[in-house]
């Protein structure tokens, strides 16, 4: 097992990474009080609830099991967590445990941020995407029909337990979705990691344990560093949004759940790369390398054919990085180096939106 720390002063917390982490009785030491509310979904709970509960015998454990899918990451289903917390009379020292992928982590974390004005929660991420990204950093929330993650809060977990063994039951398409965010870290911060991914993509897709463990560790290390520097996204943390302005527009336009988040991030990152190339910041060879890596990861490289520039513009204009009415995008200056900027050419953006290369 490897351990990283997200360094946030008295709110610092560990990320435990490794096969069998759930068997190691780590959960109990991070539970405060006597009550636990396990939040999971109808797919993950039957698979892993027993592994989580085995180390919680000294606590009163209740559970809320939500329907599975991005389409249910909304206020109505989020409210079911409060219904259960109140029905079972949980008080302020309760601990929520999010057992699932990014949807469950975001919803449970946001419930923990709001219940009785804030209680503790632990992330037990069970998808690659949630192990490398969503379980770390404290962005929590739900979708609104008009926009992704539009309602939420920053609320850090007290611990993250990433058991890489649970990835054995993850469908291939979900593994690929997680690889989109892994590739993101190489693109924004670490050219050597990007090269390592080029050389190890097949090992990752065939679930080689060492390759996955390294990719998860390095991804969490980069994210932890950025979050520690800029917890609330006033600066460098925005780089973690590479491809997301386009990607969130795709997810919202298609209908939540039609495009997986990681798939939308991949296509959105190709659009960011295309615009960066049009600006002369990266070259066509860089764009080809990025495209090859996404394809090797089993990810789409184009947005949905029915999406027009007007669709993109309407949805991107409410992106959370918009500042004083000006759209800011994360663009690439090189493989391994990104910038958040409003200094891009509008005509070039229009060409990117039209899918011209
Ligand atoms: N908070 C953040 O910083 C952050 C970062 C990235 C993404 N996100 C959010 O995360 C969500 C996407 O997360 P996701 O990709 O994990 O999707 P997800 O939570 O929908 O999980 C994907 C699918 O895999 C299933 N599953 C989960 N673990 C499994 C396992 N071990 N075995 C078998 N099936 C399993 C789930 O039931 C689901 O059907 C999006 O809502 C996105 O906006 C948040
Ligand atoms: O942690 C962050 O910061 C990120 O931007 C990580 C993203 O991968 C993630 O999808 C996040 O939920 C997007 O945040 P949003 O603020 O654009 O909704
Ligand atoms: Zn993301």
From TrEMBL:
UniProt-listed InterPro entries: Dehydroquinate_synthase (IPR050071), DHQ_synth_AroB (IPR016037), DHQ_synth_fam (IPR030963), DHQS/DOIS_N (IPR030960), DHQS_C (IPR056179)
Entry binding sites for Zn(2+): 181, 244, 261
GO annotation terms (biological process): amino acid biosynthetic process; aromatic amino acid family biosynthetic process; chorismate biosynthetic process
Annotated localization: Cytoplasm
Pfam family, one: DHQS_C
Top-rank lineage group of the source organism: Bacteria
Protein name: 3-dehydroquinate synthase
Name of encoding gene: aroB
């Amino acid at each position: 097992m490897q351990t990283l720390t997200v360094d946030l002063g008295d709110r610092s917390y560990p990320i435990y990474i490794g096969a069998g982490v759930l068997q190691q009785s780590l959960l109990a030491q991070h539970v405060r009080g006597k009550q636990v509310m396990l939040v999971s979904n109808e797919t993950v709970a039957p698979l892993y609830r027993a592994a989580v509960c085995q180390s919680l015998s000294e606590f009163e454990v209740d559970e809320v099991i939500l329907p599975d899918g991005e389409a249910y990451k909304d206020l109505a289903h989020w409210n079911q967590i409060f219904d259960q917390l109140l029905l079972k009379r949980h008080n302020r020292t309760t601990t929520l445990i999010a057992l699932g992928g990014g949807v469950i982590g975001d919803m449970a974390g946001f419930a923990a941020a709001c219940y009785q004005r804030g209680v503790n929660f632990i992330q037990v991420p069970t998808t690659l995407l949630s192990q490398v990204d969503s379980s770390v950093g404290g962005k929590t929330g739900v979708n609104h029909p008009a926009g992704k993650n539009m309602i939420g809060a920053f609320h850090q977990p007290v611990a993250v337990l990433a058991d890489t063994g649970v990835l054995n039951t993850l469908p291939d398409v979900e593994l690929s979705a997680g690889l989109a965010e892994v590739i993101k870290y190489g693109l924004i911060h670490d050219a050597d990691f990007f090269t390592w991914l080029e050389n190890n993509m097949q090992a990752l897709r065939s679930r080689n344990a060492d390759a996955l463990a390294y990719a998860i560790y390095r991804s969490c290390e980069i994210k932890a560093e950025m979050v520690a520097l800029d917890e609330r996204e006033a600066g460098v943390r925005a780089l973690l949004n590479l491809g997301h302005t386009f990607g969130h527009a795709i997810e919202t336009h298609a209908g939540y759940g039609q495009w997986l988040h990681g798939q939308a991030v991949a296509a959105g990152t190709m659009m960011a790369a295309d615009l960066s190339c049009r600006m002369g910041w990266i070259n066509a060879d860089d764009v080809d390398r990025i495209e090859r890596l996404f394809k090797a990861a089993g990810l789409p490289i184009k947005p949905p054919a029915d999406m027009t520039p007007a669709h993109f513009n309407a949805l991107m204009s409410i992106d959370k990085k918009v500042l004083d009415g000006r759209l800011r995008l994360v663009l690439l200056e090189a493989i391994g180096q990104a910038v958040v900027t409003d200094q891009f050419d509008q005509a070039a953006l229009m060409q990117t939106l039209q899918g011209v290369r």
